[in-house]
Amino acid sequence: MSDISAEQRRLNLMLALSATRRRLTREEIRARVDGYDTVPSGATAAERDRADVSFQRMFERDKDELRRMGLPLRTITDPLHQDDLGYRIDGDAALPDLDLTVRDAAILALAVEYWQGASLAEDARMGFAKVVSAIEHGHSDSLPYGGMATSAGHDATAALAEAIVDRQAVRFEYASASSETARRTVQPWGIVMRSGVEYLIGWDVDRRAPRTYRLGRISGRVRPTGDIEAFERPDSLPLGDLDDHSATLTAVIALRPETGHALRLRGEPAGAESAHGESAHGESAHGESASGESASAESSAAQDGWDLVRVPYRHEDLLRAEVLALRGAARVVSPDSLRESVAAYARAAMEVAHG
């Protein structure tokens, strides 16, 4: 199977059909366009049949995608042999000029930042540079969110994105919050983000049920397995608990002025006048009335010149990492479990640093 991605193969096909002055038959396309597998020499009849079927399915999908993009792809029949079909892209197949604003460019910059550390990072940077070179610069309103890099290790996110497009199953090592690392075989349906956390939603082949996987818990490489177009993706993803955009917990974080901007963007101010230890819904992070100790801690932090921010979150380990990364410019006021966890990790780091 070719290592060329589906996107690159379709680009190769578009260039080949745009550059020719005559029609190209399927066999000519198969032989000329990088990305389509040819029949290896010495292949058995069964192997040739499988390769032919795979090519036909792949080519039909690529044709549909090019036409969906608005390219004038023509099917031309040989006048003498009506069953001999050929293909060509006629006319000016150049893509229309992009009319992007500075705000659009900022959003693209966030997408480029997301791919940092993945195999698509260089392509993303080069593509971004070409696109924004023609944008007229000017004033732009600030975006209501900040950027982040993909949390999956190595090139897992890129591999998952390609497998979703190709409808091909994948295998990876995964450690859930309640179980040890185990190999999962999944038909990937889509990737969603909730509260700054990425999740893969798909069909777990071994468990025969839909499952949700946090990308940050995937270890090692994501490997494609089996045929492409091996399954159908549902029209709408079964989000389960992720269907509720609100986080399940709320923390009160004390921040030094002009620090913790990502936390501030996700949260809301919790000034001394509202220092009651409750969430926006009138409950504490534990779902109960906050104690007098929490209220006292909030008041003390506010009086010491810290800014109090209520931050929604789903995963304690991610928020703990954000607080620790601020190196003393942030501290947890509530809940107690998060504050104690941050303190324990900070002590462990100091013990390692001091031998």
TrEMBL record:
<dbReference type="InterPro" id="IPR051534">
    <property type="entry name" value="CBASS_pafABC_assoc_protein"/>
</dbReference>
<feature type="domain" description="WCX">
    <location>
        <begin position="301"/>
        <end position="350"/>
    </location>
</feature>
<dbReference type="InterPro" id="IPR026881">
    <property type="entry name" value="WYL_dom"/>
</dbReference>
<dbReference type="Pfam" id="PF25583">
    <property type="entry name" value="WCX"/>
</dbReference>
<feature type="compositionally biased region" description="Basic and acidic residues">
    <location>
        <begin position="275"/>
        <end position="286"/>
    </location>
</feature>
<protein>
    <submittedName>
        <fullName>WYL domain-containing protein</fullName>
    </submittedName>
</protein>
<feature type="compositionally biased region" description="Low complexity">
    <location>
        <begin position="287"/>
        <end position="301"/>
    </location>
</feature>
<dbReference type="Pfam" id="PF13280">
    <property type="entry name" value="WYL"/>
</dbReference>
<dbReference type="InterPro" id="IPR057727">
    <property type="entry name" value="WCX_dom"/>
</dbReference>
<feature type="domain" description="WYL">
    <location>
        <begin position="157"/>
        <end position="219"/>
    </location>
</feature>
<feature type="region of interest" description="Disordered">
    <location>
        <begin position="266"/>
        <end position="301"/>
    </location>
</feature>
